[in-house]
């Protein structure tokens, strides 16, 4: 079962902590907005994305489990 | 290990509890906190909660169902009164003693105060503090005086100005945030507050408050008197270590841990209360920031479960502070810095990044609305890069 990265952009203030922990998934660009580079990363990225969610100062990141049908 | 007690129902304490479960610990976890509430997030207290933008519920660190999932034995409104280090037992003011196999000390810190308690004079640390100040702001005070221009003072001043209140901020140092970002960059922050019509008094202290039943003003050390009906005191914190007085542990400015967060066999510490030697900066520190509570709580839990294989705790400390429309972030340590260079933007636009060096190494990065740069330079600090390499880096 994979997972999907969901960011609440109303909460996100581009603190860029996530970009430091998981640059494969998150990028804050010159426009100061956060971009998700890969919404459904490999399972191997789960720990880093979970850490990003935990250390997001705005608690704007969630992981949603994907059912096998979604994959 | 069959049971663990986490003393401090805080950010560090909760993250430790989550880590224990994630790492497969499935026996008893006690979570003890002296406040009547479940753990909540403190950064919004001086901003969204104080501004009235958020309902209190939004500040809870976890929803009720999360506690069921974690299966914690919670003891809220209960304070720890003593620790038997050799016996791994914590005595509580409820009369109970928790005899366990592992202990996490995460009792945080409390606000320093000035003088005797007086109506209208507040500190801000807890949810109840924020609710009290919010009510005082709602009563349309003529003037709010903020004592101290650190995190609490500067953020409360910004929030009060955004609510349209008249604000005077008094700071003993020559600039806000001087200790963390230095006088030169602190002066930029001072200008930002002045631009938002804060009456900023620098380089002067408070000698006392006037008023019998409620505060009527603030006396400054230069002889000035400022009339005020609400005063917020933000002059730092004191680590909560009184309950460890008889424990035999070193509690000079926080409880002393080794490089790995271990305090004594079976005892670790995390968050504002913990002092340890950070090998990466070769500096013994106690860090009062949000991110450190998370990473240290997580590390301490792993240290307790897995022993020395958890390794040394060597983070690059990081904080942010939201004031007006500026997001201020600082990663690293500026202690004793001998170089500073702007690396992006300019001070005039209030949008810039700058790096600090010490002994040829990059040791800190400061950003005003420059989160991307802060994180990129932070990676260089983590890797121990030289200041010159950081200056030359394409970021």
List keywords for this structure.
heterodimer, A: 71 residues, alpha+beta, Alpha-Beta Plaits, two-stranded antiparallel ribbon, 2 helices, 4 strands, B: 395 residues, alpha/beta, FAD/NAD(P)-binding domain, Enolase-like, domain 1, 3 domains, six-stranded mixed β-sheet
Describe this structure in words.
- The complex is a heterodimer of chains A (71) and B (395).
- Chain A is an alpha+beta fold.
- Chain A has a single domain (3-65), classed as Alpha-Beta Plaits (2-Layer Sandwich), CATH 3.30.70.20.
- Chain A has two helices and four strands; from the N terminus they run E-H-E-E-H-E.
- Chain A has helices spanning 17-21, 46-55, and strands at 3-7, 26-28, 34-36, 61-65.
- In chain A, strands 1-4 form a two-stranded antiparallel ribbon.
- In chain A, a hairpin with a 5-residue loop joins strand 2 (26-28) and strand 3.
- The longest helix of chain A is centred in the C-terminal third of the chain and has 10 residues, at 46-55.
- Chain A is globular, with a radius of gyration of 12 Å.
- The model of chain A has no long low-confidence stretch (mean pLDDT 90).
- In chain B, helix 1 runs parallel beside helix 7 (290-306).
- The model of chain B has no long low-confidence stretch (mean pLDDT 97).
- Chain B is built from nine helices and 27 strands.
- Chain B has a six-stranded mixed β-sheet with strand order 3-2-1-7-20-19. A five-stranded parallel β-sheet of chain B has the order 9-16-10-11-12, with helices on one face.
- Chain B is globular and about 55 Å long.
- The relative contact order of chain B is 0.12.
- In chain B, strand 21 and strand 22 (283-285) form a beta hairpin.
- Chain B has three domains: 3-43 and 54-110 and 237-310, FAD/NAD(P)-binding domain, CATH 3.50.50; 113-233, FAD/NAD(P)-binding domain, CATH 3.50.50; 325-392, FAD/NAD-linked reductase, C-terminal dimerisation domain (Enolase-like, domain 1, 2-Layer Sandwich), CATH 3.30.390.
- With 395 residues, chain B is α/β, with parallel strands linked by helices.
- The interface between A and B is medium-sized, with 15 and 20 residues.
